[in-house]
Amino acid sequence: MTSQQSERNVVAPATQPRSAWPLFEVFLRSKRGLNHVHVGSLHAADPEMALRHARDLYTRRNEGVSIWVVRAADITASSPDEKDPFFAPAGDKVYRHPTFYQIPDSVPHM
Amino acid sequence: MGFDTAYEAITEENDASRWAYGTGFADPMAGVDTSVPAGIDGADLAAYCLMLGDDALVMSHRLQQWLARAPELEEETALANIALDLLGQARLLLSRAGAADGTGRTEDDYAFLRGEREFRNVRLAEVADADFAGLIARLLVFSTWRLALLARLARSADPVLAAVAARGVKELTYHRDYAAQWLIMLGDGTDYSRERAVAALSAVAPLVPELFERTAVEGRLVAARVAVDPAQLRDEVAAVIARVLTEATLDWPAAEGLAGVSGQSGGDGVHTEAMGFLLAELQSVARATPGATW
């Protein structure tokens, strides 16, 4: 914003993104949901700031009652290359589903 | 039982089931008696509502001026949220003023069709910010002061003021937290951010004494248990700011209060030079096309 600040920006290598803040992934639990659901991502300097940013970006319309944030770099994800060895073997094992039971009405959240 | 029905089983009673998250919005004025209680002077109550409403309206406008200028997109949304909270408070308070003084003027009449001398906000709300640190220091003082005020106002003899204040407390708690976190980050950050934070405190300090001065209207309404005595807020505000400054490794600068004109300041309608420019922007559309709607 100030000329002093923009001079500092010039010193940074041109390949660097403008924001040096790390990326965080945001998970929200809505008041009608049981579990936290991934809703998006944001930039923040630390987890505390990420929590506040998540509040401001993702709960403006009364969406949530609980927020988790986690540094995107801390998530270990399966690779698309491993898709078949990881998931295809489960595709034909119908006996793994409890489809032969009647689930009582008094047992929710199945 | 499928995945969807499992979720339905735990749904609260809510008609808005077509919304992904439900709505659940609450009207802060629901069930509140809006007639002016017996024994309260309507003109005084209206003047007090204008003081509180103008503080929120003018501070909100200054915050809105940061949109598209904020250092990060995430901060911009945060500032917009705070501005909207304050604008919501201003709308209720200005509407209350129109009901209390019997003129029936609307919130828009007050916001867009008054001159500078008719605005009753403190001068802290109207000054422009030199930079982001300047905004943060000003927001910290403003929200700390207003939170202390609204927390007491929630017990006002006027049910509308009490309801507006009760809702505002939750909003202001977040505003204060936001500003405090940032001032700590700036003060205890780099040499450069610290330099900016120190300059910001110096700029805001002269505007603080006015917050604790009592106008004649407030004096009469304090006696009627409608208004809060601003002098009572001084200790709480000072204690909160001191805690934040300790964390931020900053010191509160010694500064004389900004002088008024013949002892008059914001609450009397006597403002700084910045106010005229602010109102010119705030009111330009309403003045150029009177009565326009869209």
Explain what the structure shows.
The complex is a heterodimer of chains A (110) and B (294). Chain A is an alpha+beta fold. Chain A has helices at residues 3-11, 47-58, 83-87; strands at residues 23-29, 37-43, 66-71. Chain A has a single domain (18-96), classed as Roll (Ubiquitin-like (UB roll)). Chain A has a three-stranded antiparallel β-sheet, with helices on one face. In chain A, a hairpin with a 7-residue loop joins strand 1 and strand 2. The model of chain A is unreliable at 1-13 (pLDDT under 50). Chain B is an all-alpha fold and 294 residues long. Chain B has one domain: Ferritin, core subunit, four-helix bundle (Ferritin, Up-down Bundle). The relative contact order of chain B is 0.14.
What is the structure about, briefly put?
Chain A has 110 residues and is of the alpha+beta class. Chain A has 3 helices and 3 strands; from the N terminus they run H-E-E-H-E-H.
